[in-house]
Write a structure and sequence with these properties.
Helix content: under 10%
CATH architecture of the largest domain: 6 Propeller
Distance between the termini: 134 Å
Largest sheet: 5 strands, antiparallel
Shape: elongated
Number of helices: 6
CATH class of the largest domain: Mainly Beta
Strand content: over 45%
Strand order of the largest sheet: 1-2-33-32-31
Number of domains: 8
CATH topology of the largest domain: Neuraminidase
């Protein structure tokens, strides 16, 4: 451990002298609702002597001791230079480093009495802002700006008014509010918010939230969707000291206006209630709502984090933990809390006073805090830290940052009050590689200001003192790390000699990658004609961006040169043809080397550590001659290297199997068989054959088989074991089917080409009637090209059907009236078939013939069952008396109604029952008479026909020369009828049609008739009644009557 004991004792003595005279006054003035620094102490420490920084190394880890201030530190890093850090402690103890290692004091000029609560921030242009309360009664805060990391300062300006606990943030983005600076402060029961849009020259108060009453108003900057720096967040602290209310606000216009997003009651007691304050081991504390936002372009961009301390379990006197919550909707809603501090029994120790920071580039969330887990009595603490790379869901294993415990209740430190002021907050900040924490450390009974890296690596050198004649090796060692996962790069310097030259070699390179940590590398020191004496060698270890960085010293004593002594060895003296052998120089005081290798390639070498190839089989000598300015020495070893033949690889073959089957072993034919995972033969899997690999999961497993003869191992022969997946087999789901269902095709079998099987299955069809009633397992089996098969199964249920009967249906005639079908059993079913509508049979719709009538009943399980009967419809007798006719009054006509299967006839008028009758005009005269015949056939079906016979005075027809007959049908008609005239000679007539009133409805003149004339006449919109058609020419006339219905 490196530290100035005198410096520490002087700081402690000065505080012990100061404290007794003002302790009582300080306690009397302590206000539990304010977190101000005691005025009496400020006045006594205004001219405290500043001391240079020192590195305190314990167990190879570094802490940076900056001197004694008055606790309560904050820290920032230049986004343009990852090695430039600035930290400030109460009341104005500011320090900076430009190389990440050496810290210097900074002394801004404030122009007034400063009251502390220092906070710092960097903007995106690399300007540093440092804020501190001012005024004997605290009027507000002043801000100074530096463009060179605190070496020089611009004049101080007033940034904000208030009386306690300020905070500061700056926009480091290239967004629309780039380089805006924001400040918050408590102001007697409310809060103030100011902003500077001209890089700290002037400040404007834009927001005064009434929800701020307790110290702890904070501000941070985050993105608003794609707008960098588009969200400015403010959180206020109110309620009681033991039940805080955090109220969150967001601004999307660079801090000009704010919207209240939510109020949350997350925090309770922190430790115990001591005189109205939260306290841990008599150290006052408060659950400040520390906020930070993810400005990166990672997965959690825009996420807002809240970190605070609170007892678990809640309640006065229990022990606090560190909690993290996050919001993805601008503080409206918050996640459940995640405990940041780990450990087997976190509730048995105290964790409090956290600090947090979200890295601007990576989005990594850092948290540090005070922790008593290493002290069973909980009276001493260390600084711990961790980080989260998954957005606060989980945190890495906690690591100690401070390298020595501190007694918490530090009566000699100088803070006053009960509980005692010992600093209200600490700080943490990061670049893309690591973070830097700042805290007040009480390990020496003072308010010592410390910083340290995390993640970090320990460092030492070995040996720390070396006597060197010409050259020697110093090892740079990394014995352990604290979550460090980057490269460690080493370099060295040494005192410049009066003459001669020192040089360094890095035979294994000058860096160690994180995958090999912990590790070490050799640094070879060469002294070329350097005067005898002691020289300090400084070894530097650093990360890729220069952080973290550590230095260690080694003393190099240059001694007189002695004559050399030759000696050597080989890594392997028994080797195989074509192999390389590395030789190790074990000589003393050698500056030059000449090797001779019998059978080697090359045969000679002047390297100190040569590697030689032996291609020939045999035993070979090796000779080494070494020299230096004081002389030379030669050593030789006969038959030192034995070279054997490399055998051919063993014979073997690939194997394959299906998953879930017996996996075959790999087998090889040869001597001393070995199986490797890799072609470089560095990862041995098994020795001997057969090789049961133990693989059971699908995939291709590649191995390399060798055989060894005379200690020479062959090259690897690649062999594979392939375990094939079973085909994923499926087919369409099956459910319930009725016994009466038609056979259907089973479908959906995947992959296609498989085979269905089971009860009732034949050629991929399912026959329910074959399977029978009940449950049946149907399978689909498929085998792929790898001969791997699998089967899918489905269950189908064949449901029973009811036993249905239908009595024989009686025949009906075609003109039968519609009637309801019956005779189905059980009742309640449905009839279907031709002519059936709603269980009614319409014989007239289907006509004569045999018609299938089906009766279907639906059982309680929904299955239909049916039976069918034939319903015969008899045709009606085909009765046809022909067309209405007109005959002369002195003629007779026979009307014939004969039907082959007639059973009876009945004529009206007259009542004749014969198939035919003869009629004349007797009793009728020159008039029309309608005759109707009804015929009943052998099936009792009845039909009738009607014909009208008109008797006329035939003298008219005879008077028209050549006219033989006139026909008109149908009669009666609807005004549309066929008309024909027969003539035995050519003649010309006129035709007219009259209604019963004598009005002409149709007229055709000069109709030339030759033999026979036929025409269709269609009267336009005729009224029902009797009409007359008249035919006439110069030789005579004819009139015929017809009826329009």
């Amino acid at each position: 451990m490196k530290v100035s004991l005198l410096t520490k004792l002087m700081g402690l003595l000065s505080l012990l002298i100061i404290c007794p005279f003002y302790l009582g006054a300080q306690e009397a003035a302590d206000n539990p609702n304010l977190d101000q620094i005691p005025l009496w102490y400020l006045e006594q420490t205004q001219n405290m002597q500043r001391v240079p920084s020192e590195v305190i190394t314990i167990n190879d880890f570094d802490n940076f001791y900056l001197g004694v201030d008055f606790a309560e530190g904050h820290i920032s890093v230049n986004p343009l230079d990852p090695k430039q850090f600035f930290t400030a402690f109460n009341t104005d103890g500011s320090h900076y480093t430009n190389d990440g290692y050496n810290w210097l004091n900074s002394n801004p000029s404030w122009g007034s009495s400063m009251r502390g609560d220092p906070v710092t921030a960097y903007d995106g242009d690399g300007n540093l802002y440092y804020e501190n309360m001012y005024g004997s009664s605290i009027q507000g805060c002043k801000v100074v700006k530096s463009s060179d990391n605190g070496e020089t300062w611009d004049p101080a300006v007033i940034a904000i008014s208030g009386n306690d606990k300020n905070w500061l943030a700056a926009d480091q983005s290239n967004g629309p509010y780039a380089n805006y600076v924001y400040s918050t402060m408590t102001n007697s029961g409310s809060g103030n918010f100011t902003r500077s849009i001209d890089q700290g020259l002037t400040w404007q108060n834009t927001f005064a939230p009434s929800t701020q009453s307790l110290p702890g108003m904070m501000v941070c900057v985050g993105p608003d969707a794609s707008t960098q720096g588009g969200s400015v967040y403010v959180v206020t602290n109110s309620g009681s000291a033991f039940a805080s209310t955090y109220t969150f606000y967001e601004s999307n216009d660079g801090g000009l206006t704010f919207e209240n997003k939510s109020a949350q009651s997350f925090a309770g007691y922190v430790g115990s209630n001591v005189n109205g304050r939260n306290a841990v081991q008599n150290m006052r504390t408060r659950p400040y709502p520390f906020i930070t936002a993810d400005n990166s372009y990672g997965a959690n961009r825009g996420r807002l984090y809240l970190v605070y301390a609170s007892n678990d379990p809640p309640g006065n006197g229990n022990k606090p933990d560190i909690w993290c919550r996050y919001s993805d909707d601008s503080a409206e809603n918050w996640s459940e809390p995640v405990r940041v501090n780990s450990g087997s029994n976190p509730t048995f120790s105290n964790q409090w006073q956290p600090a947090t920071w979200c890295d601007y580039e990576t989005g990594r969330l850092y948290v540090q805090w005070m922790d008593t887990r290493d002290t069973p009595t909980n009276d001493s603490a260390l600084i711990y830290a961790t980080y989260s790379d998954d957005g606060g869901l989980t945190f890495k294993a906690n690591k100690k940052i401070s390298n020595e415990k501190m007694k918490i209740n530090c009566s000699s430190c100088g803070g006053g009050g009960t509980p005692r002021y010992q600093g209200d907050y600490s700080g943490i900040v990061s670049n893309s590689s690591t973070s830097m924490s700042s805290w007040s450390d009480f390990r020496w009974g003072t308010f010592a200001s410390f910083t340290s890296y995390f993640p970090d690596f320990a460092m030492r050198v070995y040996p720390t003192t070396a006597d060197i004649q010409i050259r020697d090796t110093i090892w740079a060692v990394i014995p352990s790390v604290k979550l460090y996962s980057d490269e460690a790069i080493f370099s060295a310097t040494i005192d410049t000699p009066q003459s001669g030259l020192f040089s360094f070699e890095y035979p294994e390179g000058n860096s160690i990658t994180y995958s090999f940590l912990p590790d070490s590398i050799p640094i070879v020191v060469n002294a070329d004609q350097v005067p005898i004496g002691g020289y300090t060698m400084l070894i530097k270890g650093e990360g890729p961006n220069g952080t973290p960085v550590h230095y260690r010293e080694a003393i190099i004593n240059v001694v007189p040169i002695q004559p050399p002594s030759s000696d050597f060895s080989a890594v392997d003296t028994l080797t195989c043809s074509g192999s390389n052998v590395s030789f190790i120089d074990a000589s003393v005081n050698a500056t030059s080397w000449l090797w001779t290798f019998e059978g080697g390639d090359p045969a000679q070498s002047t390297e100190q550590f040569p590697t030689i190839t032996y291609n020939e089989v045999g035993e070979f000598d090796v000779t080494l001659e070494v020299s230096n300015p004081a002389g030379s020495s030669t050593s030789s070893k006969s038959d030192y290297i034995s070279v054997n033949t490399i055998p051919d690889p063993p014979s073997t073959e690939d194997k394959s199997a299906c998953v879930y089957s017996t996996i075959p072993p790999l087998e090889a034919v040869g001597d001393n068989i070995k199986w490797y995972f890799d072609s470089d033969l560095t990862q041995l899997a098994y020795s001997n054959t057969p090789f049961y690999t133990g693989n059971t999961l699908p995939g291709e497993y590649v191995y390399f088989a060798t055989q060894t003869i005379n200690n020479c191992e062959s090259s690897g022969y690649e062999v594979s074991l392939t375990i094939h997946e079973l085909p994923i087999v499926s087919f369409d789901p099956l459910g319930e089917v009725c016994l009466s269902a038609e056979a259907f095709e089973l479908s959906g079998g995947m992959p296609a080409g498989g085979e269905y099987f089971g009860d009732g299955v034949y050629e991929d069809m399912f026959y329910a009637s074959v399977a029978g009633v009940g449950s049946h397992v149907i399978g689909y089996d498929y085998m792929d090209s790898n001969l791997c098969s699998d089967t899918a199964f489905q269950t189908i249920v064949v449901l029973p059907i009811d036993n249905v009967t239908l009595t024989q249906l009686s025949p009906v005639c075609a003109d039968n009236e519609p009637f309801e079908l019956s005779g189905g059993n059980p009742t309640g079913g449905v009839f279907s078939g031709e002519g059936v509508i709603d269980n009614i049979f319409y014989a007239g719709d289907v006509g004569a013939g045999d018609h299938i009538i089906t009766y279907t009943i639906i059982s309680q399980n929904g299955c239909p069952s049916s039976t069918s009967e034939v319903l015969k419809v008899w045709a009606l007798p085909d009765v046809n008396l022909g067309n209405d006719t007109t005959i002369c009054g002195d003629q007779i006509i026979t009307l014939d109604a004969y039907v082959p299967n007639a059973a009876s006839y009945f004529w009206m008028p007259g009542g004749s029952t014969s198939p035919s009758i003869t009629v004349d005009s007797v009793g009728i005269g020159y008039n029309s008479q309608e005759y109707t015949v009804g015929v009943t056939d052998n099936n009792s079906c009845f039909n009738e026909d009607v014909v009208t016979v008109t008797f006329i005075n035939c003298t008219g027809i005879k008077d028209i020369d050549g006219l033989v007959n006139v026909g008109l049908y149908p009669n009666p008609n609807d005004g549309k009828f066929n008309f024909n005239i027969e003539s035995n000679k050519s003649t010309v007539v006129d035709i007219s049609i009259f209604d019963n009133n004598g009005k002409v409805q149709y007229e055709l003149n000069n109709l030339h008739i030759i033999d026979n004339y036929k025409s269709e006449i269609n009267l336009k919109d005729p009224n029902p009644g009797i009409y007359f058609i008249s035919i006439r020419n110069e030789t005579g006339s004819f009139v015929k009557k017809f009826l329009v219905k």
